[in-house]
Amino acid sequence: MKDIFIGVDFGGTRIKLGLVNEGKILADSNIEAASALTFEERLVDIAVQMRRMLAGGKYRLTGIGFAFPGIVNFYSGQILSRYVKYPGAENVDLNAWADKHFGVPMVVENDARAALIGEWQHGAGRGSDNLVLVTFGTGVGTGVLIHGKPLRGKNFVGGNLGGHSTINFEGNICNCGNIGCVESESSTWALTKLARESAEYPTSKLAEVEVIDFKSLFETAEKGDPLAVKLKDRCLKVWSLCVINLVHAYDPDKVIFGGGIMKSSHIILPYIKEMLDKHAWINASDVELEVAAEPEYAGILGVYELLKQKTH
Asked: Per the similarity annotation, which family is this (predicted)?
């Protein structure tokens, strides 16, 4: 019977689960985020899915880890911030839930910080102890590792709010309440609004797209659509300035990039390198830019590593 760990990564549209044994993913599954349900209701479905994955009696569960898209007290295991996709998560005692339903210890960490730990131990960050991770997607997530220790800070926001740093002081109010955030200027949830506010929108091919995401934006820009090209360039510039700010703040060996949009890394990374050379205090050659090696499982592998650290 193998000792097994289950990691649960709460994404914007899907919740991923993975069985981990000695740092290897043995099996995975996923369910919808289903934001119409409360967090407690989602946990019921997660427990059912976990039991399915453990069925057959060949595994012995030793721990559970949650990678959650919000501010988290790693030490107490408490989710501190509200998140619209998982209503009520801040009111749930996850330690008690794991003990009641599975009789095992639990760890919870911010999803970007967990992904950073996963990449550090199992992916693109191996061999470096000073790292920044940035994920572009529904939002913009960041995590920071300094001298081999994840940055958390007094209120557990350390390194996590790169996506909510102001990039345009005359910009719109972000959904977080701040002004002109990286996220409100260049994330999936902002794209449709940015497109529809443009005078070019009615004649743009983007007006025919049901959901404007980065895939449709880059594809439409590739065909020469003027508005798509303008929005793509805007996102590239905002992302580059975000990375420059992170490099200035944390001076890492390496910046690791995650998110589905990195399928276009051949466009994104050269642009960021050029911007670093033009506008940063260091040259692009002084910091490595790499695509995440474990984009699907970094968060799960990260909470696996963190539970080992917490229980030993």
From this structure: Belongs to the ROK (NagC/XylR) family.
Q: In the numeric block, which tokens belong to residue 167?
A: 């990039």
CA gap 110, 303 in Å, rounded: 9
Specify the pTM.
Answer: 0.92
- Region of 251 on the Ramachandran plot (φ > 0 left; ψ -120 to 50 alpha; else beta): left
DSSP string, 233-263: HHHHHHHHHHHHHHHHHH--SEEEEESGGGG
- Tens digits of pLDDT across the chain (312 residues): 889 999 999 988 899 999 999 999 999 999 998 888 999 999 999 999 999 999 877 899 999 999 999 999 999 999 999 888 899 999 999 999 999 999 999 999 999 999 999 999 999 999 999 999 999 877 899 999 999 999 999 999 999 999 999 999 999 899 889 999 999 999 888 898 899 999 999 999 999 988 899 999 999 999 999 999 999 999 999 999 999 999 999 999 999 999 888 888 999 999 999 999 999 999 888 999 999 999 899 999 999 999 988 877
**Rounded CA separation 184/167 (Å):** 9
| Start and end residues for every CATH 3.30.420.40 domain found in the chain | 2-116+296-311, 127-291
Tell me the residue type at 45: D
- CA atoms lying within 13 Å on the CB side of residue 183: 22
CB atoms within 10 A of CB 170: 6
102's tokens: 């599975």
Helix or strand (DSSP H, E) at 49: helix 39-54
Kind of pairing, strands 14-21 and 149-150?
Answer: unpaired
- H and E: helices and strands count for the chain: 9, 12
Q: Which fold has domain 127-291?
A: Nucleotidyltransferase; domain 5 (3.30.420)
Q: Per CATH, the architecture of 2-116+296-311 is what?
A: 2-Layer Sandwich (3.30)
Q: Give the number of C-alpha atoms closer than 13 A to the C-alpha of residue 161, restricted to the C-beta side.
A: 17
User: What's the CA gap between 196 and 285, in Å, rounded?
Assistant: 38
